[in-house]
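Exercise 7. Predict the joint structure of the components listed below.
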Amino acid sequence: MHRRVLASDRLIAAFLFGCVLFNYPVLSLFDRQTTVFSIPLVYAYIFFAWVVVIAVMAWAVERRFK
Amino acid sequence: MLEAPVVIAISLIYLGLLFAVAWWGDQRADQKRSLIANPTIYALSMAVYCTTWTFYGSVGRAAVSGIGFLPVYLGPTLVMALGWFLLLKMIRIVKANRITSIADFISSRYGKSHVLGGLVTVIAVLGIIPYIALQLKAVSSSVSLLLSYPEIVMPNRSATMSVAADISFYIALILAAFTIVFGTRHLDATERHEGMVAAIALESSVKLVAFLAVGVYVTYGMYEGFGDIFEHINASPELQRLATAIPSGGGYTGWFSLIVLSAMALLFLPRQFQVAVVENVNEAHLKRAAWLFPLYLLLINVFVLPIALGGLLHFAGQGVDADTFVLTLPMSQRQEGLTLLVFIGGLSAATGMVIVETIALSTMACNDLVMPLLIRHQRVALDESRDLSRLLLGIRRGAIVVILLLGYLYFRLAGEAYALVAIGLISFSAVAQFAPAMIGGMYWRGGTRDGALAGLSAGFLVWAYTLLLPSFAKSGWLPDDFLTQGLFGIELLRPQQLFGLTGFDEIAHCLFWSFLANIGAYVGFSLLRPPTAAEATQATVFVDALKDAGPVGAALWRGRAKVSDLQELVARFLGPARAQALFTAYARRRGVASGVMPEADAQLVQFAESLLAGAIGSASARVMVASVAKEEPLSIDEVMHILDEASQLRTYSRELERKSRELTAATLDLQEANERLQELDRVKDDIMSSVTHELRTPLTSIRAFSELLRDDPRMHLADRERFLGLIVSEAERLTRLINQTLDLAKIESGRADWNGCELNLKEVIEQSVAATSQLFREKEAHVELDLPDNLPLILADRDRLIQVMLNLLSNAVKFLAPGSGRVKVVLRLLTDGLEVSVTDNGPGIRPEDQQLIFEKFRQVGDTMTAKPSGTGLGLPISRRIVEHFGGKLWVESVPGEGATFRFTLPFAPIQEQALAQVAAA
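Solution:
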């Protein structure tokens, strides 16, 4: 595939992926009184998902195509 | 250390530093060594998104609604993934048309309409004023907090306080002065401010560092890390619920609407448009910004909840406003240095926002509101041939002061009733109204001026009714019975439960109704009539911005204009020297000496108009150019015709590209075919050379023996017969060799005749064994057959199979020791075919030779007989024959224990077999 098209498609995928992660109903799965490493689950989840989305975007735009 | 003079001095020094950076940035820009030609600086300048709302307000919101502060940063993160498309297209359009603001963008798209530009400006100014008020509120409360140090006293404002005694009034004035110095120093009134961008990037770094510093201090200094804070709140169910639950008030709907709203805000806030689109120096910077800016947002939010919870725990019951926790927490610990850093961080956040926002708004107000009015009503002033760039700067400076004073006014009227975040969201909802006209304008050709006007007006009115007026009412400035009872006492018209809609928070409620009205009116009114010529032209310029269409605009201008008139016009707004330089540079680019062409062509007119557009907006530029040029108006039909031609040209060029791609592909194919031919040629040569080599061996023997016979007439009869016998056998070998070479060549080239028919393999084997029985008798070898009856038929060529069997049998017998040789032929039924094996008890074949023997002319044979006894072609031919009928031929052998050659053949197709069985029965 043309490299520019591929990068664009990856960004769109990252957008859709993020929309799903950050909204109802996926978000509601983590909305409970539990903690991971004594950090509230939903708080930890959002920041984790955020890092993942940013990483995917960075990978999509910065990767050198071979 | 935190006395008033120190605080004021440090603030002024900091502002001076910013100014120095800006000055340096402008110097570098003039030297063409841009300071901001760097993707990281671009990403940092986008972080002007984070204002005091983020710096102080996020903690305030987190203290009320837990993680409810986050969607405002998740939205921009998501939209940055699409920024690569949306922002790129905006940047292209803005660069190509010298657009300076959102108002200009929308006005330009819908036929360079003055009315539309004015409306957008009004909406933007009214919408942003609460936001500016928010900055004033944050700075003034942070100043008064600092001044009461070491006590922590919440700023107590009374409505009766006089303006002269109000610290925020002076802050507004200082910010106005600072912005004027920053953004409108230049007399050339161009659209870009490199120095300002450099200063903004610095401010973004400062506020991030300050916020992280206070975050780390609270989390790890006052508490022992994240875990510790979250454990502390276990005692209070109230706080615990805050940290773990999705916020109340709208729930997921509210959450979702905030994500949408903030995503729109990132694209359409005037200051974001300014830094991300207008000030962009290189499209490629978008790539880095796509992830670096979201990363910035993430970093500045990591410590928000810990600070909020820490503040709630620390100041429990002391009545400290959560909006001030960022500042009051270090104050309560007597951390003077940190307190000052936080204050500077907050000041950065406020000044950054105010500077960029007011510059963007003042440009809009000047180009899209005041200039059009001047042009329409005060023709006299404009007709005088004088330099108008001072007038432009004057208008912009006035606009900056007015905007900041309006901000102050809103702050006085409504500011105290609301938390920082709530004020910010009112502004976000206002600028979100630009979305349909902006996005529709970039992707839909059908949008018209009427549609944009109707959509913007409808959306704006709904926004004002459902969000702005209630904000006034809640602050007591308006009677609030219209909130509870509805306008004129009609319940259905209650602003925050419009038409009885409940279950949404006020933001989601406003977003729903305003977008419904906005999009509905935009689409509906656009569809009422076809676009006019001007609208169609601009629609093409905008929608096709990413295609290399060439200058569509120039193609659509017909008329006459003098170069000198145009230059004079430009000179009046940009200054004579600059105009002269620009026109000379243009002429040089076109390859014409300036002054040679008295009559301007369409491209020059276009060029002059774009220069003017940068200074006074596209709608005014259009009017000004029309005033000096004799234009022939084009009808919509002519415009459509020209646009069609342009799009046809594009189609042709695409066609051409496709053809050229096909040609390249065809060339590649040809190249490959040629290489294949060469390879085949080489293979043929190889075969020829090995064949001739193989032919030479028997020929040499024949010749040597013949010469012996000829030269020695007295040779004994016995020797003579022996030599003759050798000559005959060598000649036979030669014949065999030639036959087999021809045979192999035929098979390989696919020209061999195959007579496929169903046959009984058992019969074939028996026939072959009978044919070779003489050979076995000569070596006194024993042949053992294991051939079951009633096996299915196979499809093959009888003669060819006999050839294979004869080859295998004669090979086996060749290597048997005389007297003790045994050969066993076995026929077996497999699931999908038959397998034949020929096993001998000869010397066997070494593993390394087991593949070699199937290659042409390779004989491993018996090392004791120096002379090869076969042709070296039997096994290769046999393998080809078996493979032709879909089978396989291979050898298994342990040296010293004999060898087994096996081949398989698949069954004949089912029907024929069945028929054969019926026939047999």
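Discussion. Residues 29 and 57 of chain A are 24 Å apart (CA to CA).
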